[in-house]
Amino acid sequence: MEARKNMNPEIESNTFTKRIGQTTYVVRFHYNENARETMQEKINRMLVNEVSHSDFMETEEIMDE
Predict the structure, then answer these.
(1) Closest to 30 measured CA to CA, from 21, 39, 42
(2) Measured distance CA(40)–CA(49) in Å, rounded
(3) Is the dihedral of CA 26, 47, 42, 39 positive or negative?
(4) Under a CB-based contact definition with an 8 Å cutoff, are residues 22 and 36 in contact?
(5) 50: helix, strand or coil
(6) What's the rounded Cα separation, in Å, for the pair 28 and 63?
(7) What does the alpha-carbon distance between residue 19 and residue 5 come to, in Å, rounded to a whole number?
(8) pLDDT, tens digit, 9 for 90 and up, residues 3-31
(9) How far is residue 14's CA from residue 17's CA, in Å, rounded to a whole number?
(10) What is the pTM of this model?
């Protein structure tokens, strides 16, 4: 794979590839090592925030009827 040959070794540890059909995606990710919350805590916080600011409860009530 040509894209992998040109990658910086420091970045490569934060990279993975995913093949979907005939397309191969090279995914690079980064994170703050000094973050105050883990990725799981962040995802949970975002989910709670999304649900509390949506009409989720109204939808549940309509479905129960």
Answers:
(1) 39
(2) 14
(3) negative
(4) no
(5) helix
(6) 40
(7) 17
(8) 555 655 555 678 889 999 999 999 888 77
(9) 11
(10) 0.41
